[in-house]
Amino acid sequence: MNNRGLLSRAMTRRSALGLFGAAALGVSGALALPGCSRGATRSAQPTRLLVKVPRTGHDVVFDDSINEVSQVITAMARAFEQASPTPVQLEVEVFEQNGYDSAIVNCFDTDRAVDILYGDYFNMSTYIHTGRVVPLDDVVSPAVRNDIYDLLWDLSTIEGRVYMMPYLSRQNVLAYNKELMRQAGLERFIRDGVIQSWSIQEWDEVLDALAANLPEGTYPMMMYAAISQGDTHIMTLLRSQGSPFFNDEGRFCLSRPEGIAALRKLQEGVARGWWPPHAENLEIEDCSSLFRNGQLAIYMLNNASVSRYGDSVGLVNFPGGVDGDGCATMFVSGFEVFDSGSPEKVQLAKDFLSFVYNSSQWLDYSAGTLPASKAVSQRHGNAIPYYDLFQSNSGHVVDFTGSNPDTRAVREVFHQVIRDLLKGNVSPEEAAFRLDEQCNRAIDEGVRTSTLHT
Amino acid sequence: MAVFVYMGQLSATVADYLMTSMDEISRHDVETIEGSLSDSYARLESVADRLEVYDVETVAEAQEQLNLEAASSPLFNAVYLLADNGDLYSSSLVRLGADQHGYDELFSDGRERFVMLYEEELGRLETTKESLVYGIRIPAIDLGDMRFVALLGRTDLSSIRDQLLIESFGGKGVSSVVDSSGYYVVGSSAATDLAGRDNFYDMLEAGSIEGGVTVDDIRRNIADGRNFVVYCTNGAGERLVLSFAPVEGTAWSFIMAVPMEVFDRRVAPFVTMTAGMLAAVVLALAAMMLVLFRYMKRSVQAQAEASARTEFLSNMSHEIRTPLNGIIGLNHLMERHLGDEAAMEGYVRKLGKSVNYLLSLVNDILDVSKLQAGKVELAEAPFNLAAAIGDVCDMQREAMDEKGIRFHLHRSLPHPWLVGDEVRISQVFVNILSNAVKFTPEGGSITFEASQAEGPDGKVRCDIAISDTGCGMTAEFQKRIFDTFSQERHTTSESQKGTGLGMAISQLLTCQMGGTISVESEVGKGSRFSVSIPLAVAPAGVVRLQEAGAAAVAQALEAGDGRLDEGAAPQVEKAPAGDRPFAVLVAEDNELNTEILTSILSEEGYAVTAAENGQAALEAFAASSEGHFLAVLMDAQMPVMDGYDAARAIRALPRPDAAAVTIFACTASTFAEDRARALEAGMDDFLAKPLNVPVMLQKLGALREGGRHEQ
């Protein structure tokens, strides 16, 4: 039986049953994998692995039945159970995006301790420094290494060892409402089919024009600081005046002139009407609603969400960057394996990842956003919305983590300083000092307490 | 049956109690939720009040004010103004046209307030999280050309869920609130996102509902705002009790879910307690019954004992009066035929028999009395069982020979030397064997079998069986044979006459020795008595000594209290006359007895000195020349000075013969302790009253022949 043919049919039909067809396909494909024996004895009690996945929307270009990534992980798990020569049972638990702590940290050393975590690197990277995440170098065969983009390996590697396996990524850029731009007389900035990069002057021009010309109740650009959610975008805006944000040691360096200048822009933007009033009290969800409702001209989108707006929006990189040609951010999602004290479980968890990363079928299910696999990108790139557009923009991607071992501690500080800045409670210099001082203290503490699993 | 009914009622009572508890918890939780809702409405009203106070003139200003209200509110994530044209303005500056939402329709029925789970279908607000949306109608606020008529507030449900989620029954009972669509307003679900929220009806669909209730029934009841209870099993197979209560002012239903396991566990202690109480009651009743039974048994026993005593006394009276009657009658006849020597000889012979019978009767009665009173102390001394059996058989040999009875003795005694009361054991054998002789006709046979086996506690069980070919006993009599005065009086043969106490004594003795006695008998064929007595084996050293002195022991035994000798009185020979009569001092306060003794002894050639009490005897002895008295016959109980003191006093006299003279205790107190007391007082031997004259003469004769008496 030709697996590729089955897959093709599944892709063509886009049926709701596609995933299950693919799951079965995965089984048949896996049976041919080295080390996977058809004649394995299955009478023994299966080893139980707990896979945890945050609730995350996900599309697959060839399977309309998929709308959450947990569906893909569950199908992978079932296929692995069938293929594994060692009896194994994988339970997939879905938790909410804001429930990482309760799902992962609070379950350490309990019977609900995670064995395999699929999630966003942004949240997952912190756990590596607890010493509970095992290195996965033995999973990364030369073929797998060659198939994954180098940038993603860089983000997955700490001190020369791979602790996370990238599966897919999303690239975030800014999007503008074409109609509002037109209303503000900014037609010349509207361009289709490209992700623009405006200069600092152009950004000032655009935002001032929007502030001056948009009707009442409509605002130029997103800004929020009520909570930490979405703060990476605000961090990226702080590169607008040429700040690298992190120094060579991965510490905040906003007290440099470029950083202070960017903070000043944020604060000046309040007075210049660039942001919605009282943006310090807004959340990213509020800005999303305003943008969706046509009340916000510029907002953040990624390669997956941009398709919801169709032709009504244009794309532009975040302002600035070291070279001044604009920035984009990237969110990587992938796997981690936790050491729960059982070498057998750790090995089976690694076997699961080997199973996935050596299966073109299961890698294909990343084809909805930007796949980590070059092969999948090649196979499905044409079908992935805006794939070429965002792939060609990858040179603008900046690392907003700085290999920070404790991103959560930094985030708790960051949004509060920005809030004070927007409210005018602190000067840009004071804000820069507080950010550098408090965030670097959190990073230093994270480094100091970091323990890597060997 | 009653227990099951009781347990059923108990379970029902506990279930009612738990249901009442569920109701109370439900009421409390519902009140908490209703209170929380009232507080939320009040907070919204406060926002409206402040809006009127603020000097806002435009919608934008109003939105900015709402922004500050939301930012400072611990409850609302966003606040909305609803215009009369349907436009909705939020604190986050979003403006939704009437065509973008349906929240204005919630007031269309004239209601003043509402609360609902956020539904994107009703209008997409600035969140994807599970939220509550409150709405209140407010006095109209005019801003420009807009008129605002209602205020809405949105609250992230996760921020208040913990406050409303109430556990009960030790964490087993979970309260939740669902809206009319079955979505959880409050529940244990971890989902906080609209995409992941659970639905109560899905849970019901995944399981089963008892009592024919359908999910639609429940849906209808919730919509109608009813209180109700259902029993169901969820998808995981867990049986649950679900109690529903409406939340006033909403389309929600409060649900208290308690696993049936909780009910079972709550009932279990009561069941255990009840079982324990029942067991205690049964035990108490059993104890009461036991006490009652013992009391009744004791009462019956006491009655039986009283009856037995009465019967015993009656029998004893009868048995004593019978020979007395004979004696009196003979006495009368003798007075009338004093001159008829032949008749007198017959009367005297019969008188002797009656007297002997009376003596044995008294002896037996005393034995029975002491045995029944538990006052018989058994000796623990080495003895030779084989020899004892031989002696017993020898005693009966003459009687058996007279009747031509064939006698067979089989002894298999690997341990002949034992420790026990030889006298009492022999008494048992004599009783049985003499009975066998009595009731076996001429030409019959008697078999005496003796064997040993390992007994308890390292002892030897001595099994004695005495079989005869006598007349046998009826089954009825076999039941009574060991009772006192039991005689199967199927014959009036003089030869078979007895006291009726022998077997009773035998049984009492055997029991006291830890043994058993039983009888098998058949009328006309004979009887077989079996005696089994556990006895300790005599230590080897003792055995050697005993064997060395066996003859002496046998002699000593023979010189016991005399009873064993009564059936075989030694031949009395007249004392040979010497140069001078041997003097005997008789201390006796009874003149008749003194006279009789004096006459008997005088006739036998003894010179008798009589003393009426111990003091007189002491004085007489003291006054005599040294070596004058061969012996002293000392009564025990006498006035002035009793025999014991007198004996001590004589022994204490400072003259050589005081210690050497043989002193016989002559007393009607015949028990072992009396004998011991006499010996302890310095007396040498014991002659029980009534005196066995031949024995007395034999002992005196032995003194006269051999000098100093040896016991």
TrEMBL record, chain A:
Transmembrane segments: none annotated. SUPFAM superfamilies: Periplasmic binding protein-like II. Gene3D superfamilies: Periplasmic binding protein-like II. It comes from the Bacteria. PROSITE patterns: TAT (PS51318). InterPro entries: Bact_solute-bd_prot1, SBP, TAT_signal. Keywords: Sugar transport, Transport. PANTHER family: ARABINOSE-BINDING PROTEIN-RELATED, DIACETYLCHITOBIOSE BINDING PROTEIN DASA. This is Multiple sugar transport system substrate-binding protein.
Automatic annotation (TrEMBL), chain B:
Residues 583-704 form the Response regulatory domain. It comes from Parvibacter caecicola. GO terms for cellular component: plasma membrane. In the N-terminal section; belongs to the phytochrome family. The modification 4-aspartylphosphate is found at residue 635. Residues 315-537 form the Histidine kinase domain. It is found in: Cell membrane. This is Circadian input-output histidine kinase CikA. One of its GO terms (molecular function) is phosphorelay sensor kinase activity. The chain crosses the membrane at residues 270-293. It catalyses: ATP + protein L-histidine = ADP + protein N-phospho-L-histidine. Signal peptide: none annotated. Keywords: Kinase, Membrane, Phosphoprotein, Transferase, Transmembrane, Transmembrane helix, Two-component regulatory system.
